[in-house]
Write a structure and sequence with these properties.
With 434 residues, this protein is an alpha+beta fold. It contains 15 helices and 10 strands. Helix 6 crosses helix 7, helix 9 packs across helix 15 and helix 14 runs antiparallel to helix 15. The chain starts with 6 loop residues before the first helix and ends with a helix. The N terminus is likely disordered.
Length: 434
């Protein structure tokens, strides 16, 4: 006699199968053997047996344009015990036109190098210091890199209560504080590691490639960035007509702004450069409330990871995820929150923050390099106030087309949206970042 199963449990088990076509939708190298290896790594126990898997949704169409992203639940037997592991798997788009248009293979290379070469070094380092919690990224359980069948399988932390921030969100002070502290802890690992192992740090840092702000890529982004600056100039003209803000911003071309970021993103060997997240807007952070009613944060998506000043991450985050009221009231407080946590974390890792990254140097870099976050935010804020998403798989054929012909952007229609973008420009002018 079979043991009783509730109707809900029966339906759940029916979804669990060995439909290999689902695995093929990731790519031909993502197999049942891959799932066995993932279960072994996740549980720390050998010779698992796969019972089945199921694919689920949960991602907004158009948001993950560089990747195809799937949630997968894997069920198996390990040492006579039934286990279940939940994954988020990023893979190269099957659509070759989309893959080539967005240069997905370059971005996958960067993120897989980050997980395969940099994270293991950082994990060993923080564990040797008894500070493993400083590395706030989900576990990578498998990856493959060959330029054709790339994938990354990460632990799905949504069952632990972590939720994503939408691209439309402006965050409150407590949320910003939690995310900036997470960034500070992550950056502190680079600074302390580099202080103790400068040669090894240089070696791993130079394995990353700049995937966005590089002079070789201006031709790729020229039309798109010209559209972004046109939209921003239209917004500031309508919200602050004839103002100092409009006059100052109109002095810049899209190429000037892009090439300034190229210069800042290229400072790999500067004394204060760290392994940075690179794309630090809201959707690339997961957040949850702890039982102690504090906020806990994990960082995602390292396809734009680079070695550069920490200020590049901070500036992009603040301009992408805060509104005018929060910046007016707490901008300096946010900088202090970040640097205080950075100082504390560097100390815990056994180095001296006063010599590695003192307040004076930090504020000097804020003054000099916040322009990068401003430039990048012209993109993220514009996308954040759009109502529509874009179906990227309508790209026909296997040839690259201009991204500005995929993202067909027009001037922002809503006054609220124009105001949000214009207020970023206002702040940058008032603070003399531009």
């Amino acid at each position: 006699m079979k043991p009783y199963q509730s109707p809900e449990r029966q339906r759940y088990n029916e979804k669990m199968n060995k439909d290999t076509s689902q695995l093929d939708s990731v790519n031909k190298l993502f197999t049942e053997k891959t799932l066995e290896e993932i279960l072994e790594k996740a549980t720390g126990k050998p010779r698992p047996r796969i019972l089945g898997w199921s694919f689920g949704g949960g991602f907004t169409k158009g948001d993950n344009y560089l990747s195809t992203v799937n949630r997968i639940t894997v069920k198996g037997i390990v040492e006579n015990e039934e286990v279940e592991v939940k994954l988020v798997v990023k893979s190269l788009p099957q659509n070759l036109g989309r893959r080539n248009t967005f240069r997905s293979t370059e971005f996958f290379y960067n993120e897989i190098i980050f997980y395969e070469k940099i994270i293991p070094e950082f994990e060993k380092f923080v564990k040797s210091k008894g500070q493993a919690y400083l590395l706030c990224v989900p576990r990578c359980l498998a990856s493959h890199l060959d330029g054709q069948n790339d994938y990354i399988a990460l632990e799905d932390v949504s069952p632990l209560g972590f939720t994503a921030i939408t691209r439309q969100s402006c965050l409150n002070f407590e949320e910003c504080k939690a995310i900036l502290e997470a960034l500070a802890r992550f950056h502190s690992i680079s600074l302390a590691y580099k202080n103790e192992k400068p040669d090894t740090f240089k070696e791993i840092a130079h394995q990353l490639n700049e995937t966005y702000y590089h002079s070789r890529l201006w031709y790729w982004y020229e039309k798109f960035h010209s559209v972004l600056v046109r939209i921003a100039k239209d917004a500031v003209h309508k919200e602050y007509p004839g103002s100092k803000v409009e006059k100052r911003f109109n002095e810049y071309t899209s190429e000037q702004l892009f090439l300034r970021s190229v210069e800042l993103c290229g400072r790999i060997d500067a004394p204060t450069s760290v392994i940075s997240q690179g794309d630090s807007w809201g959707p690339n952070f997961l957040i949850r409330k702890t039982p102690e009613n504090t906020q806990e944060v994990l960082m995602l998506d390292f396809q734009l990871a680079r070695c550069a000043s920490p200020v590049l991450d901070i500036s992009f985050f603040i301009y992408s995820c805060t509104d005018k009221n929060l910046r007016d009231e707490h901008f300096d407080d946010l900088l202090e929150v970040y640097h205080a946590e950075l100082t504390k974390s560097i100390t815990l890792l056994g180095s001296n923050p006063a010599t590695i990254y003192p307040t004076s140097i930090f504020l000097q870099e804020v003054k000099e390099q916040f322009i990068h976050g401003f430039t990048f935010a012209l993109e993220s804020v514009t996308f954040g106030v759009l109502d529509e998403t874009f179906d990227l798989d309508v790209i026909a054929g296997d040839k690259r087309i201009d991204i500005a012909d995929v993202w067909k952007l027009s001037n922002i229609k809503s006054q609220e949206g124009r105001q949000r973008l214009s207020d970023v420009i206002l702040h940058a002018v008032e603070r003399e970042f531009i």
